[in-house]
């Protein structure tokens, strides 16, 4: 029996109406009035300008929290899965054991130093007053004029650009799944983030065959790779 590991990116959720990251309408092409997306999605921005950070995060991600899974998510519901997506749609589709390696928009944690595994809470997005967005978010996230306070303020459960993978994001379990796989299938990802590079390196080291599914698949250095130039929906129906 094969042990296939699926590693998914934003392309899987595009059919659910959630923009991909690097397309024309993608999250990384849209910043705030004063900062680029790469500047916004950082721990430093959360620490030093939390109102701007939270308003951007809410507008760019949280407003999609009520979108539903598509056929690709349901197809992946019983699969060994690591997703880069924070939309939570794999859980909504019924996958009970997937790893959301970059976090989830429906969860928050206490603001803490990186490293330890801390408790996650349901995010209080239902309490946000969109007419007074920044003020409301600062109040809900318990952030005073002095900025976020360790172990008091809340922080979105999301891995930011200047943070590192920890077991809060199940990195050890993710690595174990990589090493135990006998095939890896990458769906809807550009291979531009660390987790895909990590998985690809494990595949190279252990001669694990891989498949890449994407309308414009990234070409990678690997001795045993099959490319499928198609969307996630086309792949599951072929």
UniProtKB/TrEMBL annotation:
> Which InterPro entries does UniProt cross-reference here?
DHS-like_NAD/FAD-binding_dom, NAD-dep_sirtuin_deacylases, Sirtuin, Sirtuin_cat_small_dom_sf, Ssirtuin_cat_dom
Q: Does the keyword Acyltransferase apply?
A: yes
What one GO molecular function would you report for this record?
Answer: NAD-dependent protein lysine deacetylase activity
Record's keyword annotation contains NAD: yes
The enzyme class is transferase
Instruction: Cite the entry's keywords alphabetically.
Output: Acyltransferase, NAD, Transferase
The protein's Enzyme Commission number = 2.3.1.286
What's one Pfam family the UniProt record gives for this protein? SIR2
Q: Give the Deacetylase sirtuin-type domain ranges.
A: 1-238
Do you know which PROSITE patterns this protein is assigned to? Answer: SIRTUIN
This chain belongs to the protein called: protein acetyllysine N-acetyltransferase
């Amino acid at each position: 029996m094969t042990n296939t590991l699926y590693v998914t990116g934003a392309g899987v959720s595009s059919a659910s109406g959630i923009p991909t990251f690097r397309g024309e309408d993608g999250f990384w092409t849209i910043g705030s009035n004063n900062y680029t997306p790469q500047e916004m999605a950082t721990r430093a921005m959360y620490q030093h300008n939390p109102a701007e950070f939270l308003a951007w995060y809410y507008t760019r991600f949280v407003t999609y929290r009520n979108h539903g899974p598509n056929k690709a998510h349901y197809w992946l519901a019983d699969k060994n899965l690591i997703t880069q997506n924070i939309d939570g749609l794999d859980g909504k589709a019924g996958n009970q054991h997937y790893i959301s390696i970059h976090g989830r928009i429906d969860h928050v944690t206490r603001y803490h130093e990186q490293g330890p595994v801390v408790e996650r809470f349901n995010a209080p997005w239902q309490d946000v007053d969109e007419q007074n967005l920044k003020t409301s978010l600062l109040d809900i996230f318990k952030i005073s004029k002095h900025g976020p306070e360790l172990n008091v303020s809340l922080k979105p459960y999301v891995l930011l650009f200047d943070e590192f993978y920890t077991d809060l994001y199940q990195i050890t379990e993710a690595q174990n799944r990589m090493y135990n796989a006998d095939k890896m299938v990458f769906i809807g990802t550009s291979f531009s983030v660390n987790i895909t590079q990590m998985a690809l390196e494990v595949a190279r080291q252990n001669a694990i065959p891989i498949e890449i599914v994407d309308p414009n698949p990234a070409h990678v250095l690997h001795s045993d790779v099959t490319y499928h130039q198609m969307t996630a929906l086309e792949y599951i129906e072929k």
